[in-house]
Automatic annotation (TrEMBL):
<dbReference type="GO" id="GO:0030288">
    <property type="term" value="C:outer membrane-bounded periplasmic space"/>
</dbReference>
<keyword id="KW-0574">Periplasm</keyword>
<dbReference type="GO" id="GO:0071555">
    <property type="term" value="P:cell wall organization"/>
</dbReference>
<dbReference type="Pfam" id="PF01520">
    <property type="entry name" value="Amidase_3"/>
</dbReference>
<feature type="domain" description="LysM">
    <location>
        <begin position="390"/>
        <end position="433"/>
    </location>
</feature>
<dbReference type="InterPro" id="IPR050695">
    <property type="entry name" value="N-acetylmuramoyl_amidase_3"/>
</dbReference>
<keyword id="KW-0378">Hydrolase</keyword>
<dbReference type="InterPro" id="IPR021731">
    <property type="entry name" value="AMIN_dom"/>
</dbReference>
<dbReference type="GO" id="GO:0009253">
    <property type="term" value="P:peptidoglycan catabolic process"/>
</dbReference>
<comment type="similarity">
    <text>Belongs to the N-acetylmuramoyl-L-alanine amidase 3 family.</text>
</comment>
<dbReference type="InterPro" id="IPR002508">
    <property type="entry name" value="MurNAc-LAA_cat"/>
</dbReference>
<dbReference type="Pfam" id="PF11741">
    <property type="entry name" value="AMIN"/>
</dbReference>
<keyword id="KW-0732">Signal</keyword>
<dbReference type="GO" id="GO:0008745">
    <property type="term" value="F:N-acetylmuramoyl-L-alanine amidase activity"/>
</dbReference>
<keyword id="KW-0961">Cell wall biogenesis/degradation</keyword>
<dbReference type="InterPro" id="IPR018392">
    <property type="entry name" value="LysM"/>
</dbReference>
<dbReference type="Pfam" id="PF01476">
    <property type="entry name" value="LysM"/>
</dbReference>
Length: 437
Protein backbone atom coordinates (compact mmCIF):
# COMPACT_ATOMS: atom_id res chain seq x y z
CA UNK A 1 0.00 0.00 0.00
CA UNK A 2 1.08 3.64 -0.29
CA UNK A 3 3.50 3.99 2.60
CA UNK A 4 3.04 7.73 3.12
CA UNK A 5 -0.66 7.13 3.72
CA UNK A 6 -0.05 4.02 5.77
CA UNK A 7 2.23 5.99 8.08
CA UNK A 8 -0.35 8.80 8.29
CA UNK A 9 -3.02 6.31 9.30
CA UNK A 10 -0.82 4.60 11.86
CA UNK A 11 -0.05 7.95 13.41
CA UNK A 12 -3.64 9.20 13.24
CA UNK A 13 -5.23 6.21 14.96
CA UNK A 14 -3.17 5.99 18.06
CA UNK A 15 0.60 6.30 17.77
CA UNK A 16 2.17 8.81 20.12
CA UNK A 17 5.75 10.14 20.40
CA UNK A 18 7.97 7.87 22.47
CA UNK A 19 8.40 10.51 25.15
CA UNK A 20 4.66 10.40 25.89
CA UNK A 21 4.43 6.62 26.23
CA UNK A 22 4.36 4.78 29.56
CA UNK A 23 4.72 1.22 30.76
CA UNK A 24 1.64 -0.35 29.19
CA UNK A 25 -0.49 -2.79 31.16
CA UNK A 26 -2.12 -5.48 29.02
CA UNK A 27 -5.57 -6.15 30.40
CA UNK A 28 -6.81 -8.87 28.07
CA UNK A 29 -6.36 -10.34 24.58
CA UNK A 30 -9.19 -11.48 22.35
CA UNK A 31 -9.16 -13.00 18.88
CA UNK A 32 -12.00 -12.86 16.35
CA UNK A 33 -12.61 -14.38 12.95
CA UNK A 34 -14.41 -12.00 10.58
CA UNK A 35 -14.59 -11.45 6.81
CA UNK A 36 -11.77 -13.92 6.13
CA UNK A 37 -9.45 -12.16 8.60
CA UNK A 38 -8.29 -13.20 12.03
CA UNK A 39 -8.16 -10.12 14.23
CA UNK A 40 -6.29 -10.20 17.55
CA UNK A 41 -7.09 -7.29 19.85
CA UNK A 42 -4.79 -6.45 22.76
CA UNK A 43 -6.53 -4.22 25.32
CA UNK A 44 -4.19 -1.83 27.15
CA UNK A 45 -4.41 0.94 29.70
CA UNK A 46 -2.49 3.38 27.50
CA UNK A 47 -0.89 3.92 24.08
CA UNK A 48 1.88 1.32 23.53
CA UNK A 49 5.25 1.47 21.86
CA UNK A 50 5.49 -1.84 20.07
CA UNK A 51 6.68 -3.87 17.13
CA UNK A 52 5.06 -6.78 15.28
CA UNK A 53 6.76 -9.32 13.03
CA UNK A 54 6.18 -12.82 11.66
CA UNK A 55 8.36 -15.92 11.88
CA UNK A 56 8.28 -19.24 10.00
CA UNK A 57 8.86 -22.90 10.84
CA UNK A 58 6.63 -22.89 12.78
CA UNK A 59 4.42 -19.99 11.70
CA UNK A 60 3.89 -17.42 14.41
CA UNK A 61 3.42 -13.71 15.06
CA UNK A 62 5.52 -11.94 17.67
CA UNK A 63 4.28 -8.81 19.45
CA UNK A 64 6.86 -6.96 21.57
CA UNK A 65 5.45 -4.24 23.82
CA UNK A 66 7.99 -1.92 25.40
CA UNK A 67 7.93 -2.06 29.20
CA UNK A 68 4.69 -4.03 28.96
CA UNK A 69 3.24 -6.01 31.82
CA UNK A 70 0.26 -8.30 32.26
CA UNK A 71 -2.63 -7.21 34.47
CA UNK A 72 -3.81 -9.51 37.19
CA UNK A 73 -6.33 -11.98 35.83
CA UNK A 74 -5.07 -11.53 32.24
CA UNK A 75 -6.76 -13.93 29.84
CA UNK A 76 -6.65 -14.71 26.12
CA UNK A 77 -9.00 -16.43 23.69
CA UNK A 78 -7.44 -18.08 20.58
CA UNK A 79 -9.59 -18.29 17.44
CA UNK A 80 -9.27 -18.49 13.65
CA UNK A 81 -5.64 -18.72 12.54
CA UNK A 82 -4.43 -18.27 16.14
CA UNK A 83 -4.10 -21.70 17.76
CA UNK A 84 -2.32 -20.68 20.94
CA UNK A 85 -1.15 -17.56 22.80
CA UNK A 86 2.11 -17.50 24.78
CA UNK A 87 3.86 -14.70 26.63
CA UNK A 88 7.18 -14.00 28.31
CA UNK A 89 9.86 -11.36 28.79
CA UNK A 90 12.30 -10.03 26.20
CA UNK A 91 14.52 -7.89 28.37
CA UNK A 92 12.29 -5.13 29.72
CA UNK A 93 9.69 -5.78 27.02
CA UNK A 94 6.66 -8.04 27.17
CA UNK A 95 6.64 -10.56 24.32
CA UNK A 96 3.36 -12.11 23.15
CA UNK A 97 3.59 -14.98 20.65
CA UNK A 98 0.64 -16.06 18.54
CA UNK A 99 1.08 -19.64 17.30
CA UNK A 100 -0.59 -19.89 13.89
CA UNK A 101 -2.35 -22.71 12.09
CA UNK A 102 -1.06 -21.51 8.70
CA UNK A 103 1.21 -18.94 7.10
CA UNK A 104 -0.30 -15.46 7.39
CA UNK A 105 0.45 -11.86 6.53
CA UNK A 106 0.21 -9.52 9.53
CA UNK A 107 -0.62 -5.84 9.73
CA UNK A 108 -1.19 -3.79 12.86
CA UNK A 109 -2.56 -0.49 14.10
CA UNK A 110 -3.65 1.14 17.36
CA UNK A 111 -7.15 2.35 18.13
CA UNK A 112 -7.58 5.25 20.51
CA UNK A 113 -10.07 4.96 23.39
CA UNK A 114 -13.80 4.89 22.63
CA UNK A 115 -16.75 5.21 24.97
CA UNK A 116 -16.60 1.48 25.72
CA UNK A 117 -12.92 0.52 25.38
CA UNK A 118 -9.49 1.91 26.10
CA UNK A 119 -6.44 1.73 23.83
CA UNK A 120 -6.37 -1.34 21.61
CA UNK A 121 -3.51 -2.78 19.61
CA UNK A 122 -5.03 -4.64 16.66
CA UNK A 123 -3.15 -7.30 14.68
CA UNK A 124 -4.96 -8.48 11.55
CA UNK A 125 -3.92 -11.80 9.99
CA UNK A 126 -4.67 -12.88 6.44
CA UNK A 127 -3.81 -16.44 5.43
CA UNK A 128 -1.18 -16.81 2.69
CA UNK A 129 -0.59 -19.68 0.33
CA UNK A 130 3.22 -19.81 0.56
CA UNK A 131 5.78 -20.28 3.28
CA UNK A 132 6.33 -17.16 5.32
CA UNK A 133 9.51 -15.18 5.73
CA UNK A 134 10.30 -12.82 8.59
CA UNK A 135 7.80 -9.99 8.16
CA UNK A 136 8.23 -6.23 8.42
CA UNK A 137 8.69 -4.60 11.79
CA UNK A 138 6.24 -1.82 12.63
CA UNK A 139 7.37 0.60 15.32
CA UNK A 140 6.50 4.11 16.41
CA UNK A 141 9.76 5.39 14.95
CA UNK A 142 9.36 3.54 11.65
CA UNK A 143 5.78 2.55 10.99
CA UNK A 144 6.38 1.32 7.45
CA UNK A 145 8.33 -1.58 5.95
CA UNK A 146 11.91 -0.95 4.93
CA UNK A 147 12.87 -0.81 1.28
CA UNK A 148 13.39 1.74 -1.42
CA UNK A 149 10.22 1.82 -3.47
CA UNK A 150 9.34 4.70 -5.79
CA UNK A 151 7.01 7.48 -4.72
CA UNK A 152 3.90 7.12 -6.89
CA UNK A 153 2.30 10.19 -8.47
CA UNK A 154 -1.14 9.78 -10.07
CA UNK A 155 -1.67 12.33 -12.87
CA UNK A 156 -5.22 13.11 -13.92
CA UNK A 157 -5.74 14.83 -17.28
CA UNK A 158 -8.96 16.80 -16.79
CA UNK A 159 -12.05 16.30 -18.97
CA UNK A 160 -11.91 13.88 -21.92
CA UNK A 161 -14.24 12.05 -24.30
CA UNK A 162 -17.66 13.65 -24.44
CA UNK A 163 -16.45 16.44 -22.15
CA UNK A 164 -14.06 18.74 -24.07
CA UNK A 165 -13.69 21.26 -21.26
CA UNK A 166 -13.00 24.89 -22.14
CA UNK A 167 -12.33 25.96 -25.74
CA UNK A 168 -9.64 28.54 -26.61
CA UNK A 169 -9.96 31.42 -29.12
CA UNK A 170 -8.39 29.33 -31.91
CA UNK A 171 -10.24 26.15 -31.00
CA UNK A 172 -7.78 24.44 -28.63
CA UNK A 173 -9.71 22.04 -26.42
CA UNK A 174 -8.92 21.75 -22.73
CA UNK A 175 -9.19 17.94 -22.80
CA UNK A 176 -6.39 17.76 -25.40
CA UNK A 177 -4.12 20.25 -23.65
CA UNK A 178 -4.47 18.53 -20.28
CA UNK A 179 -3.63 15.13 -21.74
CA UNK A 180 -0.54 16.53 -23.45
CA UNK A 181 0.62 18.20 -20.21
CA UNK A 182 -0.12 15.02 -18.23
CA UNK A 183 1.95 12.89 -20.61
CA UNK A 184 4.85 15.35 -20.42
CA UNK A 185 4.63 15.45 -16.65
CA UNK A 186 4.69 11.66 -16.49
CA UNK A 187 7.77 11.60 -18.71
CA UNK A 188 9.78 14.02 -16.56
CA UNK A 189 8.67 12.34 -13.32
CA UNK A 190 9.59 8.87 -14.59
CA UNK A 191 13.03 10.21 -15.53
CA UNK A 192 13.69 11.02 -11.87
CA UNK A 193 15.24 8.40 -9.60
CA UNK A 194 12.79 7.46 -6.87
CA UNK A 195 9.65 8.81 -8.58
CA UNK A 196 7.09 7.00 -10.76
CA UNK A 197 3.94 8.34 -12.39
CA UNK A 198 0.70 6.77 -13.55
CA UNK A 199 -1.87 8.38 -15.86
CA UNK A 200 -5.49 8.26 -14.77
CA UNK A 201 -6.43 8.52 -18.44
CA UNK A 202 -4.06 8.10 -21.39
CA UNK A 203 -6.56 8.53 -24.21
CA UNK A 204 -9.57 10.62 -25.18
CA UNK A 205 -12.03 8.96 -22.81
CA UNK A 206 -14.48 10.35 -20.29
CA UNK A 207 -14.09 9.28 -16.66
CA UNK A 208 -16.49 10.29 -13.86
CA UNK A 209 -14.83 12.51 -11.27
CA UNK A 210 -15.14 10.00 -8.43
CA UNK A 211 -13.60 7.26 -10.57
CA UNK A 212 -10.50 9.40 -11.08
CA UNK A 213 -9.51 9.68 -7.44
CA UNK A 214 -10.70 6.15 -6.72
CA UNK A 215 -8.27 4.88 -9.36
CA UNK A 216 -5.46 6.77 -7.64
CA UNK A 217 -6.40 5.06 -4.37
CA UNK A 218 -6.45 1.63 -6.02
CA UNK A 219 -3.00 2.31 -7.47
CA UNK A 220 -1.80 3.25 -3.95
CA UNK A 221 -0.61 6.66 -5.11
CA UNK A 222 1.24 8.95 -2.70
CA UNK A 223 -0.04 12.07 -4.50
CA UNK A 224 -2.88 12.85 -6.90
CA UNK A 225 -2.41 15.74 -9.37
CA UNK A 226 -5.29 16.85 -11.60
CA UNK A 227 -4.34 18.97 -14.64
CA UNK A 228 -6.74 21.62 -16.03
CA UNK A 229 -6.75 24.83 -18.06
CA UNK A 230 -8.82 27.74 -16.79
CA UNK A 231 -11.27 29.92 -18.74
CA UNK A 232 -12.99 33.25 -18.16
CA UNK A 233 -15.35 35.56 -19.99
CA UNK A 234 -12.64 38.24 -20.24
CA UNK A 235 -9.77 37.27 -22.56
CA UNK A 236 -7.19 39.16 -20.49
CA UNK A 237 -7.53 36.85 -17.47
CA UNK A 238 -4.23 35.03 -17.12
CA UNK A 239 -1.98 32.94 -14.90
CA UNK A 240 -1.83 29.55 -13.25
CA UNK A 241 -3.42 28.49 -9.96
CA UNK A 242 -3.22 25.52 -7.59
CA UNK A 243 -6.23 24.25 -5.63
CA UNK A 244 -6.73 21.88 -2.73
CA UNK A 245 -9.96 20.62 -1.19
CA UNK A 246 -11.99 23.09 0.84
CA UNK A 247 -13.08 22.31 4.37
CA UNK A 248 -16.69 22.30 3.18
CA UNK A 249 -15.90 19.79 0.46
CA UNK A 250 -14.04 17.57 2.89
CA UNK A 251 -16.99 17.66 5.30
CA UNK A 252 -19.50 16.63 2.64
CA UNK A 253 -17.24 13.80 1.49
CA UNK A 254 -16.81 12.62 5.07
CA UNK A 255 -20.59 12.51 5.46
CA UNK A 256 -20.89 10.41 2.30
CA UNK A 257 -18.19 7.96 3.43
CA UNK A 258 -19.79 7.55 6.82
CA UNK A 259 -23.23 7.00 5.27
CA UNK A 260 -21.91 4.40 2.83
CA UNK A 261 -19.24 2.76 4.97
CA UNK A 262 -21.06 -0.58 5.16
CA UNK A 263 -20.44 -1.04 1.43
CA UNK A 264 -17.29 1.08 1.04
CA UNK A 265 -13.83 -0.34 0.50
CA UNK A 266 -11.45 0.07 3.39
CA UNK A 267 -9.43 3.22 3.69
CA UNK A 268 -5.89 3.15 2.43
CA UNK A 269 -3.76 1.81 5.25
CA UNK A 270 -6.00 -1.20 5.78
CA UNK A 271 -8.43 0.44 8.21
CA UNK A 272 -12.06 -0.35 7.50
CA UNK A 273 -14.85 1.88 8.75
CA UNK A 274 -17.53 -0.77 8.29
CA UNK A 275 -16.97 -2.48 11.65
CA UNK A 276 -16.53 0.71 13.71
CA UNK A 277 -19.20 2.46 15.75
CA UNK A 278 -20.33 5.88 14.55
CA UNK A 279 -18.14 7.90 16.90
CA UNK A 280 -14.95 5.94 16.19
CA UNK A 281 -15.57 5.91 12.44
CA UNK A 282 -16.08 9.68 12.49
CA UNK A 283 -12.88 10.27 14.45
CA UNK A 284 -10.79 7.98 12.22
CA UNK A 285 -12.05 9.61 9.05
CA UNK A 286 -11.62 13.12 10.44
CA UNK A 287 -8.01 12.43 11.44
CA UNK A 288 -7.22 10.91 8.06
CA UNK A 289 -8.74 13.85 6.18
CA UNK A 290 -6.95 16.35 8.39
CA UNK A 291 -3.55 14.82 7.68
CA UNK A 292 -4.37 14.57 3.96
CA UNK A 293 -5.41 18.22 3.70
CA UNK A 294 -2.25 19.36 5.51
CA UNK A 295 -0.07 17.37 3.10
CA UNK A 296 -2.08 18.60 0.10
CA UNK A 297 -1.57 22.21 1.11
CA UNK A 298 2.15 21.75 1.72
CA UNK A 299 2.83 20.17 -1.68
CA UNK A 300 0.58 22.75 -3.39
CA UNK A 301 2.66 25.58 -1.92
CA UNK A 302 5.81 24.03 -3.35
CA UNK A 303 4.21 23.54 -6.78
CA UNK A 304 2.82 27.05 -7.15
CA UNK A 305 6.15 28.52 -6.10
CA UNK A 306 7.94 26.44 -8.75
CA UNK A 307 5.37 27.32 -11.44
CA UNK A 308 5.97 31.03 -10.88
CA UNK A 309 9.31 30.57 -12.67
CA UNK A 310 7.54 29.52 -15.89
CA UNK A 311 4.85 32.17 -16.36
CA UNK A 312 2.24 34.30 -14.70
CA UNK A 313 0.60 33.08 -11.50
CA UNK A 314 -3.06 34.05 -11.27
CA UNK A 315 -3.16 33.52 -7.50
CA UNK A 316 0.03 33.43 -5.44
CA UNK A 317 -1.70 31.63 -2.59
CA UNK A 318 -3.04 28.09 -2.63
CA UNK A 319 -6.76 28.16 -3.41
CA UNK A 320 -9.49 25.98 -1.88
CA UNK A 321 -12.53 24.68 -3.70
CA UNK A 322 -15.04 21.85 -3.58
CA UNK A 323 -13.75 19.98 -6.64
CA UNK A 324 -14.96 16.38 -6.79
CA UNK A 325 -11.59 15.01 -7.95
CA UNK A 326 -9.91 16.32 -4.78
CA UNK A 327 -12.15 14.42 -2.39
CA UNK A 328 -9.93 11.46 -1.57
CA UNK A 329 -9.83 11.19 2.23
CA UNK A 330 -6.44 9.47 2.29
CA UNK A 331 -4.40 10.60 -0.75
CA UNK A 332 -2.98 14.16 -0.78
CA UNK A 333 -4.52 15.83 -3.85
CA UNK A 334 -4.19 19.06 -5.80
CA UNK A 335 -5.71 20.54 -8.94
CA UNK A 336 -3.50 22.69 -11.19
CA UNK A 337 -4.98 25.28 -13.52
CA UNK A 338 -2.07 25.54 -15.96
CA UNK A 339 -3.25 28.87 -17.39
CA UNK A 340 -6.25 30.52 -19.07
CA UNK A 341 -7.01 28.77 -22.33
CA UNK A 342 -9.43 31.65 -22.97
CA UNK A 343 -6.45 34.04 -23.10
CA UNK A 344 -4.96 34.10 -26.63
CA UNK A 345 -1.38 34.32 -25.36
CA UNK A 346 -1.77 31.54 -22.83
CA UNK A 347 -3.66 29.37 -25.31
CA UNK A 348 -0.68 29.75 -27.65
CA UNK A 349 1.69 28.82 -24.83
CA UNK A 350 -0.29 25.73 -23.88
CA UNK A 351 -0.28 24.58 -27.51
CA UNK A 352 3.53 24.88 -27.60
CA UNK A 353 5.42 21.64 -26.76
CA UNK A 354 8.44 23.47 -25.35
CA UNK A 355 6.29 25.53 -23.00
CA UNK A 356 4.44 22.40 -21.85
CA UNK A 357 7.78 20.76 -21.04
CA UNK A 358 8.93 23.77 -18.99
CA UNK A 359 5.59 23.70 -17.20
CA UNK A 360 5.91 19.97 -16.51
CA UNK A 361 9.45 20.42 -15.20
CA UNK A 362 8.29 23.16 -12.83
CA UNK A 363 5.45 21.00 -11.48
CA UNK A 364 7.87 18.10 -11.05
CA UNK A 365 10.32 20.33 -9.20
CA UNK A 366 7.61 21.45 -6.80
CA UNK A 367 6.68 17.83 -6.12
CA UNK A 368 10.35 16.94 -5.60
CA UNK A 369 10.79 19.84 -3.18
CA UNK A 370 7.93 18.54 -1.05
CA UNK A 371 8.99 14.90 -0.99
CA UNK A 372 12.62 15.86 -0.35
CA UNK A 373 11.44 17.22 2.98
CA UNK A 374 8.60 14.77 3.71
CA UNK A 375 9.51 11.47 2.02
CA UNK A 376 7.28 8.45 2.66
CA UNK A 377 8.98 5.83 4.80
CA UNK A 378 10.39 2.91 2.89
CA UNK A 379 11.05 4.90 -0.29
CA UNK A 380 14.24 5.65 -2.14
CA UNK A 381 13.75 9.32 -1.25
CA UNK A 382 13.61 8.52 2.45
CA UNK A 383 16.87 6.57 2.22
CA UNK A 384 18.86 8.78 -0.14
CA UNK A 385 17.60 12.36 -0.50
CA UNK A 386 19.01 14.93 1.89
CA UNK A 387 16.44 17.58 2.88
CA UNK A 388 17.12 21.13 1.76
CA UNK A 389 16.05 24.41 3.28
CA UNK A 390 12.56 25.52 2.28
CA UNK A 391 10.76 28.84 2.10
CA UNK A 392 7.19 29.74 2.99
CA UNK A 393 5.23 32.81 1.88
CA UNK A 394 2.92 33.95 4.67
CA UNK A 395 -0.76 33.94 3.72
CA UNK A 396 -3.58 35.87 5.34
CA UNK A 397 -4.73 34.26 8.60
CA UNK A 398 -1.59 32.16 9.10
CA UNK A 399 0.29 32.18 12.39
CA UNK A 400 3.83 31.09 13.13
CA UNK A 401 2.45 28.08 15.01
CA UNK A 402 0.36 27.00 12.00
CA UNK A 403 3.33 27.35 9.65
CA UNK A 404 5.61 25.42 12.01
CA UNK A 405 3.10 22.58 12.35
CA UNK A 406 2.59 22.40 8.59
CA UNK A 407 6.33 22.03 7.95
CA UNK A 408 7.01 19.76 10.91
CA UNK A 409 9.42 22.08 12.72
CA UNK A 410 9.30 24.09 15.93
CA UNK A 411 8.23 27.72 16.22
CA UNK A 412 11.56 28.52 17.87
CA UNK A 413 13.51 27.06 14.94
CA UNK A 414 11.65 29.33 12.50
CA UNK A 415 12.26 32.33 14.75
CA UNK A 416 15.97 31.52 14.89
CA UNK A 417 16.28 30.90 11.14
CA UNK A 418 14.64 34.25 10.35
CA UNK A 419 15.96 36.39 13.22
CA UNK A 420 12.45 37.02 14.57
CA UNK A 421 12.15 38.59 18.01
CA UNK A 422 8.48 37.59 18.35
CA UNK A 423 5.77 35.50 16.71
CA UNK A 424 4.45 38.49 14.75
CA UNK A 425 4.65 37.94 10.98
CA UNK A 426 3.41 39.93 7.99
CA UNK A 427 1.30 38.68 5.09
CA UNK A 428 3.53 38.22 2.06
CA UNK A 429 6.72 37.75 4.07
CA UNK A 430 8.96 34.90 2.89
CA UNK A 431 10.20 32.78 5.79
CA UNK A 432 13.13 30.39 5.76
CA UNK A 433 12.05 26.97 7.00
CA UNK A 434 14.94 25.04 8.58
CA UNK A 435 15.56 21.44 7.60
CA UNK A 436 14.63 20.21 11.04
CA UNK A 437 13.70 21.52 14.44
Amino acid sequence: MGLLRRLSWLLSIGFLPTALLHAAEIQRLQTQQQDGLTRTIVHLDGAPEYKVFTLANPDRVVIDIRNGRLAGGFNSSPAGLVENVRHGRQGSDLRIVLDLAATAQARSFVLSPSQRDGHRLVVELEQQGTASEPGPVLTVANAAPSGERDIIIAIDAGHGGKDPGAIGPTGAREKDITLQVARELKAVIDAERGLSAILIRDSDVYLPHAERYQKARREEADLFVSIHADAFTRPDARGSSVFVMSTRGASSEAARWLAERENAAELVGGVSLSDKDNMLATVLLDLSQGATLEASNAVAENVIRAMASVGNVHKNEVQRANFMVLRSPDVPSLLIETGFISNPVEERNLKDAQFRRRLALAIRDGIKDYFSVAPPHGTWYAANVKPVERHHTVSRGETLAVIARRHGVSVQSIRSANGLASDRILVGAVLRIPVSS
